[in-house]
Amino acid sequence: MSDVASFFRGRAVLVTGASSGIGAELARQLARHGARLAILARRRQNLEALASELRAASGATVLVVACDVSEPAAVAGAMARVERELGLPDVAILNAGIGESRKLEDFSVEWVRRIFETNLFGVLYFVEPLLGSMLARGAGTIAVTSSLARDRAMTQTGPYSASKAALSAVIESLRIDAWPRGVRLITIEPGFVKSPMTDRNAFPMPFMVSSERAAAIVLRGIAQGTPVIRFPWPMAVITYVLRMLPSRLFLWAGSRLSPKRDLKKPG
């Protein structure tokens, strides 16, 4: 048995954003590792199909909970059901998130607010009860999906980068205090991962990895207790260099990368 499988076998694991993409692939690999799963997303039909697939393939224990993570009451209800039927999660992978590109003329505060409600608050609504319970128990892991985009905002995607930067900063701060008390807070910062969300993008996405590869990297990092999981490494190096660029040089470079046509928007 691999170290990853031995870490997850028999543990209660909660995964949000599990209806597609990396979230669904995390659930598949966790089921193969013998974890007891609670899978959450808005689309119940997709979750039920995934749960049936996992039960048939590996006999996994899978609890399906439809939940809009941007609604605090829905999150509270979902957490109550998970704890009642599966127990307090040993590991929570808070993966739900949205992204959307807009041209300059379409900027609005409501656009920013909607992205923050899911990408930041939709994670922290789970972190609050999980952190309290795990601290009381003295053990547990909370892993949140941020992004390499947190390093620097690129053209037409400012709210997405800002939401991920805020999330990484909050988790980094909590990690400092929680780690000595037995609770691991882990930040997942991927580059481009093949998924329905990235399928909508009209701009180049270098060093893209498959959802299968991404999920394997994430689960290995969680099992090893890696505080920040950044991948793929070439893209991580690029974003680090971009973060170090002086503002004037970044403005010059960014203005030349700005698309001269409209980007696709979610349908």
Molecular structure report:
- This protein has helices at 3-8, 21-32, 44-58, 72-85, 109-137, 158-178, 196-199, 211-224, 233-244, 247-257, and strands at 12-16, 36-41, 62-66, 91-94, 140-145, 183-190, 228-231.
- It is an alpha/beta fold and 267 residues long.
- It has one domain (3-257): Rossmann fold.
- Helix 2 (21-32) packs across helix 8, helix 4 (72-85) runs parallel beside helix 5 (109-137) and helix 5 runs parallel beside helix 6 (158-178).
- The radius of gyration is 18 Å and the shape is globular.
- The termini are far apart.
Q: How do you describe this structure in short?
A:
With 267 residues, the protein is an alpha/beta fold.
**Average of pLDDT:** 91
SSE sequence, one letter per element: HEHEHEHEHEHEHHEHH
What percentage of amino acids are in beta strands? 5-15%
**DSSP strand count:** 7
The CATH class turns out to be Alpha Beta
CATH level 3 topology: Rossmann fold
Structural class: alpha/beta
CATH superfamily heading? NAD(P)-binding Rossmann-like Domain
Largest sheet, order of strands side by side?
A: 3-2-1-4-5-6-7
Radius of gyration from the alpha-carbon trace, in angstroms: 18 Å
Count of distinct structural domains:
1
Globally, the shape reads globular
- Runs with pLDDT <50, length 5+? 261-267
**Largest β-sheet summary:** 7 strands, parallel
Helix content: 40-55%
- The CATH architecture name reads 3-Layer(aba) Sandwich
Helix count equals 10
Distance between the termini: 43 Å
- Multimerization state: single chain
